[in-house]
Task: inverse folding
């Protein structure tokens, strides 16, 4: 659900880049990045995470970090 919403929202952000990290095969990266929940969106030091992220939460996060 979050992935689909994220993909749709990123279509409107020309300069955005999405990197997907597989947490099972990259546990050290996950730990280093401070990921505690799946999914987690990270931009710099900003994170949005939760078990059930909805489109509105993802959109608000992207707007906040993209305009900062």
Result:
């Amino acid at each position: 659900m979050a992935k689909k919403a994220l993909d749709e929202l990123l279509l409107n952000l020309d300069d955005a880049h999405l990197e997907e990290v597989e947490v099972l095969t990259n546990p050290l990266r996950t730990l280093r990045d401070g990921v505690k929940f799946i999914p987690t969106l990270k931009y710099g030091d900003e994170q949005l995470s939760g078990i059930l992220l909805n489109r509105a939460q993802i959109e608000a996060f992207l707007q906040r970090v993209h305009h900062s």
Observations:
- Residues 2-66 form one domain.
- The radius of gyration is 12 Å.
